[in-house]
Amino acid sequence: MSLPDTGVPLTSSVPQKSSPQKSSPQKSSPEKSLPRTAAGERVLSSLGDTFHVFDTTLRDGAQREGITYSVPDKLAVARLLDELGVGFIEGGWPGAMPKDTEFFARAAAGELELRSAQLVAFGATRKAGVRVQDDLQVRALLDSGAPVVTLVAKSDVRHVARALRTTNEENLAMVRDTVAFLVEHGRRVFLDCEHFFDGFSVDRDYGLRVGEAAVSAGADVMVLCDTNGGQLPVSLGRTVAEVVQRTGFRIGIHCQDDTGCAVANSVAAVEAGATHVQCTANGYGERAGNADLFAVLGNLIMKLELPVLPEGRQSELVRVSHAIAEIANIAPDTHQAYVGASAFSHKAGLHASAIKVDPELYNHLDPGAVGNDMHILITEMAGRASVELKARELGIDLADHPQVVERVVQTVKQREARGFSYEAADASFELLLREELARDGVGPDEPMTDLFTVESYRVIVENPLHTEREEVSSEATVKVHVAGRRVIATAEGNGPVNALDTALRTALDGLAELRDVELIDYKVRILDGDAGTDSVTRVLVSSTDSHREWTTVGVHPNVVEASWQALVDSLRYALTRSAPSPTAHRSA
């Protein structure tokens, strides 16, 4: 819905300060105001203080369900964000949260040396009816030692009356007093106008009066907060543009993701004139989360061509995203824009055919620009181009072997129809490639299947019922042929798969390449739930040798047999790692 300008000016004029820290008011998109060469090309040096990338992962992002940062965690996250090159890192609420108070104390003691960013303390304006110099939480903001303070203030008249339980004028006085007090003590102040957009729909002037109170007292930025996350990009952009036009203040944006539009809303705000963007790493935050820092940065840098990070830092997006996810103990979102492992993965054969000609035809940018990679997924949708590109990705050139490509395509389609999946099992797919090449006499003299051959295996599961120690035990025996010898090995395990794995490794103990290999993940999926216990099962086994990880797949109605297939493939793959590639890799 259109938001017409009321034509009502602010009630008083706000003098513009000449502080070197504060940029002149932005009344147009920063993209248009970038310096240009005589040829009209944008000068892509860092925007520095003319544009703020403000991260609140350690404060707002920490409100996500399931995240609990320790103080060392917070210090580690702050270092990563600084390495990325963000301008401001909001560390928490000192005085209100003991852990945050300790974080700022340790940072001030020298445990956090920032190269690019400034540390920000978050807090509220003074309490109603309390002198600012007597408000302990305001004092805690000074005691934190942070050079920058973000204050949150109510900008919706309904919240002033119902949440603060005070008058509109007292709320304005609370803003003025607190900002002036902090500025007087040498702090740079940003004001978060909480619930600004919801309040603007009710009273189009009061939120602007809150911003005026802050800026007149010395605040640098008026941040418009979509606290409930209910805005959509077009209407939000119109509101931001109106605020920029009516105030001339430096405007910031803070978006929650309750409509799934936080990133789009943030970009729309920048295009409307905002020059301060608040985000969280990986979109962490309360409810549906916040605007994802990495998606916002990707859009601003790669799409709007705004150099909002120091030169070259955008290639660190993937590394920093995944490192912070590790600290938060949350699995990275594989489909996250720009930084997800699948962000540049292609499954359809039609896509692969085009990518073979030119990767840009189905990639919106070079994945390497943000530190990511392109991947080709092998499924029943795969065609010849998919197989050739995936093989090239694995270091195998099939350009001169069309017959191998055709056999692999048909084999994949047949196996996928039976339940196999090679999307997450690159190691099994590489074994298939090598075996088909070996059939044509390409590669090592010894085929992959001859590294060792399995004669048989047997598993016994025993549950000694009605005894004092009701422990279920498993015992496996495997018979294999390796290095010209027939070897029989028996082992016990805490389950049939563990017993088989141990017995097979024991039988192959003479192969040095397998000594560091260990199983790190085991997943089972029922493919035909309607068949009950007679269903076909798919097993994925992930392994590592401390240098790299790989995944193999097995499918069978018997879960033990499916597991055995994946285990055998895993050890065969480990042995192929020490063998030369069957064909020289040819670059694209």
UniProtKB/TrEMBL annotation:
Domain Pyruvate carboxyltransferase span(s) in chain numbering: 51-319
Enzyme Commission numbers on file: 2.3.3.21
Sequence ranges of Low complexity compositional bias: 12-28
InterPro entries hit by this protein: 2-isopropylmalate_synth_dimer, AIPM/Hcit_synth_CS, Aldolase_TIM, Aspartic_peptidase_AS, Citramal_synthase, LeuA/HCS_post-cat, LeuA_allosteric_dom_sf, PYR_CT
GO molecular function: (R)-citramalate synthase activity; 2-isopropylmalate synthase activity; aspartic-type endopeptidase activity
A single BP term in Gene Ontology: proteolysis
SMART domains: LeuA_dimer (SM00917)
Record keywords: Amino-acid biosynthesis, Branched-chain amino acid biosynthesis, Isoleucine biosynthesis, Transferase
Broad class of enzyme this protein falls into: transferase
Pathway annotation: Amino-acid biosynthesis; L-isoleucine biosynthesis; 2-oxobutanoate from pyruvate: step 1/3
Reaction equation(s) it catalyzes: pyruvate + acetyl-CoA + H2O = (3R)-citramalate + CoA + H(+)
Matches recorded under Pfam families: HCS_D2 (PF22617), HMGL-like (PF00682), LeuA_dimer (PF08502)
Disordered: region residues: 1-38
Similarity annotation: Belongs to the alpha-IPM synthase/homocitrate synthase family.
Protein name per the record: Citramalate synthase
Protein's organism: Nakamurella sp. A5-74
Gene: cimA
